[in-house]
UniProtKB/TrEMBL annotation:
Residues 344-457 form the Pyridine nucleotide-disulphide oxidoreductase dimerisation domain. Transmembrane segments: none annotated. GO terms for biological process: 2-oxoglutarate metabolic process. It comes from Reinekea thalattae. InterPro entries: Class-I_Pyr_Nuc-Dis_Oxidored, FAD/NAD-bd_sf, FAD/NAD-binding_dom, FAD/NAD-linked_Rdtase_dimer_sf, Pyr_nuc-diS_OxRdtase, Pyr_nucl-diS_OxRdtase_dimer. Keywords: Cytoplasm, FAD, Flavoprotein, NAD, NADP, Nucleotide-binding, Oxidoreductase. This is Soluble pyridine nucleotide transhydrogenase. Conversion of NADPH, generated by peripheral catabolic pathways, to NADH, which can enter the respiratory chain for energy generation. GO terms for cellular component: cytosol.
Length: 466
């Protein structure tokens, strides 16, 4: 038995684990990271954010090529297979892995590729693939083990035509059609990807509307856009059974409908990776979704054991996981980098994209806040006319008396980037007038840009005041 001693041991090398490790080592702590995968980067790099975003980008490029009449001088419309576009994702994953592996080497963070389980509050047992076992000791731990797709026991996920968001990345052919069950972020993003690849897509939503947490107008815009491209959306439907056959799958809904398809993607729910950690040894218990409870410092009920990322539940985003991990090391090393991570923007990579921050109209109305709306439609901006990405809207919600920005909601190409301009203004202190929609009228914007949409939307909103 070899024994190690560290200031901090992090379980999981996704965004939460990586940022916790890097911030701690920069503050002079001795750090080790454990991940049972052979390559670093976590599910984020291997099965979640990175492959889905690379796939989506490749599909978007094919769509742009096929839509643009100018390219007809060069070649006819063309369609690529799913395995062909997956190759792009594979290239990006490799680049991410080698870049991230260098971070650990350069910053002298020890990496162990093994399954970790607690023995006690200061000891982990590491089990390697060859069944070799060793223990590792540390003053503090960060649990950053992420999440995996929730798999209801009654569905046969071993069937070659039934997939979840992990196994879909091993689809080795291009089906003619696909049924996606679950219309959360994953379901909607994959509906866009498969629709863009030319598949017939049925999107089954157990809820009342797509992405119900978004501003209603933006959620409606997405529904309209997906439907206008041929996606069949059914709301308020729950599954009864999913049966796999040699050459098809049949989804039976509780409403009595039966849907036949080539392939089926389950995109409903995720479970925190806590079942293999032997939490009982440290007197911790996960909730029914495998998630851990933490306080405002991301500390569990054990004072030396912290948790961040998907394993603590909301918002389950790579963006937030990076900041949470860094915050934990800010607490442990007292290096001034602790920040409670809130006011998190949403970036949803449907085609077109969606992004938002702050309050929705529904929330402001319920809170009786006197707000006004300013909008800029992409089709009315020169930049969108040049790029041909004319579907979209930027919507600014602001207080009609103080003019402070209260919410920013954007639907359209590059929405996830465009949002951050408004976020920078919205995060200024309101008391000093820093957060005001007037910023967009008092500063000159490059022309033609999509940033100019802020000026157009601000004028539209200010003109409503009396
Ligand atoms: C399809 C999809 C698309 C997404 N797109 C986006 C997006 O566009 N933007 C965004 O911000 N977020 C997105 N997300 C969410 C994002 O991927 C997650 O929020 C993020 O990966 C969480 O990071 P994490 O650090 O908590 O852990 P993960 O990235 O989940 O990594 C955890 C690591 O811990 C390891 N591990 C687990 N248990 C053990 C153990 N016992 N011992 C050793 N190692 C262990 C795992 O092998 C894994 O490598 C997406 C997710 C999915 C599924
Ligand atoms: N662009 C992005 O930011 C992006 C893209 C994809 C995924 N994600 C993240 O991945 C997560 C998963 O997305 P999703 O669309 O599948 O939504 P989701 O998993 O959060 O929820 C889908 C539905 O399943 C239910 N559910 C969740 N976990 C369950 C469980 N363990 N058991 C039973 N039911 C459960 C939920 O209540 C909800 O009705 C989200 O939290 C999202 O933030 C982000």
């Amino acid at each position: 038995m070899i024994e190690h001693q560290y200031d901090l041991v992090v379980i999981g090398s996704g965004p939460a684990g990586e940022s916790a490790a890097m911030n701690a080592t920069k503050s002079g702590l001795s750090v080790a990271v454990i991940d049972f995968r052979k390559a670093v980067g976590g599910n984020c790099t291997h099965q979640g954010t990175i492959p889905s975003k690379a796939l989506r980008h490749a599909v978007h490029q094919i769509m742009q090529f096929n839509r643009n009449p100018m390219f007809r001088y060069v070649a006819d419309q063309t369609w690529l297979s799913f395995p062909q576009v997956l190759e792009t994702a594979e290239r990006v994953i490799q680049k991410q892995v080698s870049m991230r592996a260098r971070f650990y080497a350069r910053n002298r963070v020890d990496l162990f590729h093994a399954q970790a389980a607690f023995k006690d509050k200061h000891t982990l047992e590491l089990t390697y693939q060859d069944k070799k076992v060793e223990t590792i000791k540390a003053k503090n731990f960060v649990i950053a083990t992420g999440s995996r797709p929730y798999q209801p026991p009654e569905i046969d996920f071993n069937h070659p035509r039934i997939f979840d968001s992990d196994s879909i990345l091993s689809l080795d052919s291009t089906p003619k059609n696909i049924v996606i069950y679950g219309a959360g972020v994953i379901g909607c993003e994959y509906a866009s990807i498969f629709n863009g690849l030319g598949l017939k897509v049925d999107l089954i939503n157990p809820g009342e509307r797509l992405l119900a947490f978004m501003d209603d107008e933006i959620s409606d815009a997405l529904s309209y856009h997906l439907r206008s491209h041929g996606v069949l959306i059914r709301h308020n439907e729950a599954f009864k059974s999913i049966e796999g056959f040699d050459d098809h799958v049949v989804l039976t809904l509780q409403s009595g409908k039966k849907i036949k398809c080539d392939s089926f993607l389950w995109a409903n729910g995720r479970t925190g990776n806590t079942d293999s950690l032997n939490l009982a040894a440290i007197d911790l218990k996960a909730n029914r979704r495998g998630q851990l409870e933490v306080d405002e410092h991301y500390c569990t009920q054990q004072e030396n054991i912290y948790a961040a990322g998907d394993v603590i539940g909301w918002p389950s985003l790579a963006s937030a996981a990076y900041d949470q991990g860094r915050s934990i090391s800010g607490v442990i090393s007292d290096n001034g980098t602790y920040r409670h991570v809130n006011d998190i923007p949403t970036g949803i990579y449907t085609i077109p994209e969606i992004s938002s921050i702050g309050k929705t109209e529904r929330e402001l109305t319920a809170e009786k806040v006197p707000y006004e709306v300013g909008k800029a439609y992409f089709k009315d901006t020169a930049r969108a006319q040049i790029t041909g990405e004319e579907a979209g809207v930027l919507k600014l919600l602001f207080h009609r008396e103080t003019t402070e920005l209260l919410g920013i909601h954007c639907f359209g190409d590059q929405a996830a980037e465009i949002l951050h301009i408004g976020q920078a203004i919205m995060s200024q202190p309101s008391e000093s007038g820093g957060n005001s929609i007037r910023y967009f009228l008092e500063h000159t914007f490059n022309y033609p840009t999509m940033a100019e949409a802020y000026r157009v939307a601000a004028l539209n909103g200010i003109n409503r005041l009396f």
